[in-house]
Design brief:
The structure holds 2 protein chains of 2 kinds. Chain A has 11 helices and 7 strands. Chain A is α/β, with parallel strands linked by helices. In chain A, the strands form 2 sheets. Chain A has a 5-stranded parallel β-sheet with strand order 1-2-3-7-6, sandwiched between helices. A two-stranded antiparallel sheet of chain A has the order 4-5. In chain A, a hairpin with a 2-residue loop joins strand 4 and strand 5. In chain B, helix 1 runs parallel beside helix 7. Classes of the chains: A alpha/beta, B alpha/beta.
Chain lengths: ~325, ~350
């Protein structure tokens, strides 16, 4: 069993995981109530992956997320208020209401707009890593993808070059077993669609229990150190599971009930870590409840704030299409 | 002033910008391999000798840090994605596509990523990148022959330019590299003037100042003044229009020839001012007819200034077919000087 980190770090990680869970649950209810526009692709169930991978990144490291971005954004430090405003399409949203649920992110926190084209961020993450390398910086780049993205050309083209060029990038495959509704077993011959392909490109790869935040964080530490030291990319394949459907209307009729019980009950990442920190006396149950209570109240306030916040001016639609000027 | 080909003018612009700004770098397949071609059309040949190669090439000059002539695998999604990601983090990539037809291998990165990233970020991200795209029909068959400007004009967030003289090539390339937006540059294969001979190539060499200058986007150039018919044509078609105009002049038909130089942004004002004088408009491009950029220009003029016209707008474009290989068929499909002359004669009599 992996060693518990410092009290501060353990509680910091738990607090982020709990926040992601509650944020996503709240979004789900708002959606069911018909209050929230658009569609949703949710990240709850994958909290250990987001927090374990991102917790030790620096603010000036860059993280590229997917159509399921909330957990990654929260872990990277994007303001919850700006995210919730974005979900409602409000002017104060992190993308000024022009991104939406699949594109939340805030470049000021090293989280550019999340990418809703499967595999779309993979070469972009390599490009960011190349920039750091050319600039002589020790920042690193992290690319999140789902299992389905490993069948995209962008994955293979990028892995080849990232390995050859020893780019400071970490490729993180959150393998939640399904590409939308199709089992990855129906679309990929490899047991581990990301990690098993690393060997073809000379990239060290690990398969990790994606629902154990300490296991994820330990693997992340190795991969980040390797990238920062200029030794090149790593592939981490995190086995995990989403609590919700692929998107808003997906009732997951394709997932066996015993599989759901295994992942959602026995291997719930938030519950597992909670149990662990209590068992190891990192914190008392009462103190932990206080932390959770604070998060719950904060999320209540966020929703109130975002619902009441103003929509963008219509003129906003025509702004930010082009960047004015340049370096002329 | 030096006499330069378009290929050399582009190279001069890129090299000068690389000297001025360490963020500028070149990337592409066969971008600059010693003993190789320098892209497909010599533009980036020798760049690595000054700025270093990446990955490093044994026996060549080794530079401090990473060489700025980057030779990539044959991976267009990678090239375009790396441009987007590195541009986001402060670099200014100048990619060479070898053939503009390969743009279609990277459409997601250009259309969904480069063009939309700034907007989706609420204005926080900027993507200063240049995609250099050799275009035009040159007896290479349908997959190395297109003139697909209009695909990219349709994408908000992209700029599209098409320099047709050596002077413009240097000045517009500098503006493209310094622009904070993604810029798609169409360079016609028959206009490069590179040493490698192309059937049908024109000598486009011209005077190019050695000093630094930049040409703003959105300013068309009047290549020939005239009073009877306005002709708007880009790249190779502008030269064919000029050839036609010389013959038409002898028949008493005076053509004013406009080279838009940049398609996004497009200088409609210069076209309108010319049509105000001539009342007649011919638009010519090498892209095929259906939804080619001429359709946009024609509809704009009709929508805003139809009363300036005293005859229907004439559009000349490639036929709506893939570009065939056989030189006889290719010449038939692409607008010719003769077709331009015929169209102008008919229009002059209306």
């Amino acid at each position: 069993m992996l060693k518990m980190p410092s009290r501060d770090k353990a509680l910091g990680m738990y607090s982020k995981m709990y926040t992601i869970r509650k944020y996503e649950e709240r979004i789900y209810y708002l959606f069911l109530e018909g209050i929230m526009p658009g569609t949703i692709h949710q990240s709850h169930g994958e909290e250990a992956s987001a927090v374990g991978m991102i917790y030790d990144l620096r603010k000036d490291d860059i993280m590229f997320s997917t159509h399921r971005p909330a957990g990654h954004d929260i872990a990277k430090g994007v303001s919850l208020r700006s995210m919730m405003c974005e979900m409602f399409g409000k002017a104060e949203g992190c993308c000024k209401g022009k991104g939406g649920a699949m594109h939340t992110g805030d470049f000021d926190f090293g989280a550019p707009p999340a990418n809703a084209i499967v595999g779309g961020n993979i070469p972009i993450a390599a490009g960011a890593a190349l920039a750091f390398k050319m600039q002589g910086k020790d920042n690193i780049s992290m690319s999140f993808m789902g299992d389905g993205a490993t069948n995209e050309g962008s994955f293979h083209e990028t892995l080849n070059a990232a390995s050859l060029w020893k780019l400071p990038v970490v490729f993180v495959c959150e393998n939640n077993l399904y590409s939308a509704t199709t089992s990855i077993k129906l679309t990929c011959p490899m047991k581990n669609p990301a990690a098993d392909r690393g060997v073809a490109y000379g990239i060290p790869s690990e398969v990790v229990d994606g629902n154990d935040v300490l296991a994820v964080n330990e693997a992340a530490t190795r991969a980040i150190a390797r990238a920062r030291a200029g030794e090149g990319p790593t592939i981490l394949e995190l086995k995990t599971y989403r609590r919700g459907g692929h998107s808003r209307n997906d009732a997951c009729g394709y997932r066996p009930k015993d599989e759901e019980k295994l992942w959602l009950v026995d291997r719930d990442p938030v519950a597992l870590f909670r149990k662990r920190i209590l068992e190891e006396n990192v914190i008392t149950e009462d103190e932990l409840k206080k932390i959770e209570d604070t998060v719950d109240k904060e999320i209540d306030k966020l929703v109130e704030y975002a619902e009441a916040a103003p929509f963008p001016e219509l003129s906003e639609a025509e702004r930010d299409v082009y960047c004015e000027g340049g370096i002329n | 002033m030096a006499q330069m080909s378009i290929a050399d003018a582009l190279k001069a612009a890129i090299a000068e910008e690389m000297r001025r700004d360490p963020a500028v770098y070149c990337i592409g397949e066969d971008e600059d391999i010693p003993g190789g071609m320098g892209g497909a059309f010599t533009v980036t040949k020798g760049i690595g000798e000054e700025f270093g190669y990446f990955p490093p090439i044994p026996g060549t000059k080794q530079v401090e840090g990473i060489g700025r002539a980057i030779n990539t695998p044959i991976s267009e999604i990678l090239i375009s994605g790396v441009c987007v990601g590195s541009a986001m983090m402060g670099m200014r990539p100048v990619a060479d596509l070898q053939y503009c037809d390969f743009l279609f291998c990277m459409m997601d990165q250009l259309v969904n990523q480069a063009a939309k990233m700034r907007y989706m970020s609420g204005g926080k991200v900027k993507i200063p990148m240049v995609m250099r795209c050799p275009s035009g029909a040159t007896n290479r068959g349908a997959q190395h022959a297109q003139s697909p400007e209009s695909y990219f004009m349709h994408v908000p967030g992209l700029k599209v330019i098409c320099p047709s003289t050596a002077y413009d090539a240097k000045g517009l390339m500098k503006t493209a590299i310094r622009d904070d937006n993604p810029v798609i540059v169409f360079e016609h294969k028959l206009l490069y003037g590179s040493k490698r001979k192309e059937a049908g190539a024109l000598n486009s060499s011209g005077e190019v100042p050695e000093e630094d200058y930049a040409i703003p986007f959105g300013k068309a150039a009047i290549r020939r003044e005239g009073k009877d018919i306005t002709i708007v044509a880009n790249l190779m078609m502008n030269y064919k229009a000029q050839e036609a105009a010389q013959i038409l002049e002898k028949e008493g038909i005076s053509c004013e020839i406009i080279d838009p130089r940049t398609l996004v942004p497009f200088d409609y004002e210069t076209v309108i001012e010319s049509v105000r004088k001539t009342g007649k408009l011919i638009i010519i491009h090498e892209d095929n007819y259906n939804c080619g950029w001429g359709a946009q220009v024609a509809s704009y003029i009709a929508e805003h200034e139809i009363f300036l016209l005293n005859a229907p707008i004439v559009r000349l474009a490639a036929l709506d077919t893939p570009v065939p290989f056989s030189p006889v068929l290719e010449n038939y499909v692409i607008p010719s000087t003769e077709k331009i002359i015929d169209a102008a004669r008919k229009l002059a009599n209306m």
